[in-house]
Every structure is written in C-alpha cells, then in structure tokens.
Write a structure and sequence with these properties.
2 copies of one chain form a homodimer. The first copy, chain A, contains 5 helices and 12 strands. The first copy, chain A, is α+β, with helices and mostly antiparallel strands. β11 of chain A pairs antiparallel with β11 of chain B.
Chain lengths: 228, 228
C-alpha cells in the first residue's frame, strides 16, 4: 500500500490496496477499491455494524457513524462494553450497507438485491483530546443534518467526558456493489412472470414535533436532509 | 431456559432468557426478550449482518435472511468463505437492525435514533437434506414477496447443490428498541430550535422491468409487498 501524506496531493492514495483479508473473492467483479466510490457510500450511510470478538465470541452491534477525512468515527457512552473493548485496541470490522433494490428474476435462484457495502478492518484509537472529540461530535451531528450542530446547545464538559469517541483509520477497506437487472438463464425468458428491479428508497416521514417547542420555531427544511 | 416442545403450546418458550452475553446492560430499559416482539422485528427486516472471527479477525458481512419457526436462515454460494466458516460450526453473531427515525434534541448530546435491533448468538448448522433446503429457499423468496416462489422456476438440482443454507437456532437472543421523543435537559427547553422525531421509511421506487418480458405480463402488485 502506498503511503498517504496529507497535504501533498501527488502522493495521496486514490485506491485501497486489497489485502488477503479484503480482496473480494466471491464474484470479484463486484469488488470496489476506489477511494472516491468507497467514501461516497460511507457519506451516504449513517448506521454501521461494528464487529469485535470477546473471549472468542463475535458480537455485531449497530451504531451511528460519520467519516472524517481518512477515518471512520463511532461514539457512545463511556460505560459501553463495546467501546471499552474497541478502545483497548482489539481487532474490529466495521461494515456499512446500503440496500438499493430488490432484484426479481424469472427463476428463484437468480433473485438478488442491489446493494453497496463497505467493509473496514483495523484497530480503533480513542480520541483523548477534548478539542478533537468536539470536532468529532460536530461531525456526527452534521453528518445527519448539515448545520445542526451550530443551532443546538453544544456538548458540556460533563457530556464530553461521558462520551467515548473512537476513530478507525480507513486503510484496509473494500466495497462490494451490485447494480442492474437480474441474471436470467436463457430457458427462463419465455416464462410469463414479471422480472426486473424494484428500487428501494429511504424516505422521511411526517415530522413529530415536541409539544413544548418555543412558539414560532421553524420546521426543519426538507432540503437540508441531503441524503433522503 | 425452558425447553421448547413444538406442538405442545403449554411449554413453548415465550421469552428469551437473557444470558451474560445477551443481557442488555447499557440502557437496560431498552432491552426486549419477548419472543413475539423479537420475531416481529425479524419478520419485518430482510438484511442481516453476520459476524464471525477467522484467525482472531472479526468480519461483518451483510446478507439476506429469513426466519423459519425458531431458526434464522442465511444462504449463499457453496463457494463462500463465510458460509464455509460458519458451516464448520464457529461461533456466530447475526444482527438485524431497523432504523425507525431520527431524533432531534435541542442539545447536540441528546440527538439519537429510534431503532429496533436483534442480536442472535450461537452456532449455525448446514442444511444437508435437499428437501429441507428447498423449504428454506422457498422461505427466502417468499419472505421478500409472498407467493413469489410459486410463480417462478423452482431451483434445479444443480442450483440446489451450489447453494449452502445455514440455520441458526434462535436461543440466545436479545432485542433493543428505542422509541419516542428526544430526552431534553430542562435548561434547553427555551432554546428556539426545532426538536422532535423525523420518522424514516423504506419505500418502493418505480419498478424497472426487463425489456424482454413476455407481452402482457402483469406488474407486481404493490399490495403484495407487505412490509413497505
């Protein structure tokens, strides 16, 4: 893997180098290592699944995340078992999955889904510096809704202390993408049944405001939710 | 944990007994062990994240699933590394997560998400009997769209052979649920900013039919997609 030197764009790594652990072996044509494509998936998603093993037992826990430069950030209570384990530097796998559509074939076998997923391996570091933590918390909030952090009360010292933030460097990373129509065996084409793709979208429902809002407070504008 | 005897409802287990590994410790009021509630989450979702460790490194892989009675089924190519590892009886964690809404508080700290998630621990068994495999494949297809398996070409012997199906017994299971409005600190109530919940829904987009459908084939009726 080529070294990454921030600020010297000529040497910035533009693709992730597959390792024995991240090389997509099943259906390798679905493997993606281009950094821009990987980051686009990470910036569209907002929930990841964090995998770690304790006493040999794997655990997979869903949690919010945000990408900041070449790291993925997760956070939670300082009392969390998961964050304790990860902060101790155990091996971790963080996976982000976006489901784009249901793929209907004329055979049961070729039914599938269109998706984009990213698998990230490594060891996380705990953010110890309060200023760095504050930047991370701003990123979490604004990853969901740009500008939100600036309009709400910022974290107090006590809140900052009670929050653990972990950063996983994006080094050993691969994405897998399926797009397009179903595969069909030639003998199935004549079968009189619908086949194709039904896209799936995540949509905002009707906002449910608190009943004690300050009178006249504006609703959140739909256009601010850039990903939905 | 009480034994489960199918067909004798008086002894059917109605709740999962929390173990040291599935007891929800952080925010225990969010922990759910009621079987009906857990199964409702599993039956609404259709993508899980499977966690397993190989040589100490955890991996988290997204894949489709379906519940059948008291087991969760996953499947894939017989060539899949993941299914090989799991079929060898390694410890596994399968997690299903549904995101129900974004929770906006008047402080950065109390922003949250509404969600329902299920964590399942155990060891999977490989379905060896072709008849049992066929039942499982029917369940996968019809979990996405009821009745679909009956209208498409069923799996051939070769397709059946090339597919590995694993079943994880639902024994060591817990769910975690967050619902409702944000927590607010009293001092933040007067802040003139919107707060509340914005629900999230997964919706079907416009179907994209194959261009070689048999003329006159009916579209998939929206009402068949019971979960969207």
């Amino acid at each position: 893997m080529r070294a990454t030197f921030a600020g010297y764009s000529g040497l910035i790594m533009e693709t992730f180098t597959p390792t024995a652990r991240t090389q997509v072996r099943r259906l390798p044509k679905r493997g993606v290592y281009d950094k821009r494509e990987v980051y686009a998936i990470l910036d569209e998603g907002f929930v990841c699944h964090v995998g770690f093993a304790l006493d040999g037992q794997p655990y997979v826990i869903p949690t919010g995340y945000a990408r900041l430069a070449d790291e993925i950030l997760i956070h939670g209570s300082a009392a969390s078992r998961m964050l304790h384990a990860l902060g101790d530097g155990v091996d971790v796998c963080v996976t982000v999955t976006l489901i784009d559509g249901l793929v209907f074939s004329r055979s049961a076998f070729h039914h599938s889904m269109n998706y984009r997923s990213v698998v990230m391996l490594g060891r996380a570091r705990v953010l110890a510096d309060p200023a760095e933590k504050m930047i991370a918390l701003r990123r979490f909030t604004n990853h969901i809704l740009p500008g939100r952090f600036e309009e709400v009360r910022p974290p107090s010292d006590a809140e900052l202390k009670s929050t653990t933030v972990l950063a996983l460097p994006l080094e050993e990373v691969s994405a897998k993408i399926r797009t397009g129509p179903p595969v069909e065996d030639e003998g199935d084409i004549e079968r009189p049944v619908w086949a194709g793709v039904v896209p799936l979208h995540t949509r905002l429902g009707t906002p449910e405001p608190m009943d004690d809002l300050v009178p006249g407070v504006a609703e959140l504008e739909r256009s601010r939710f850039t990903r939905f």
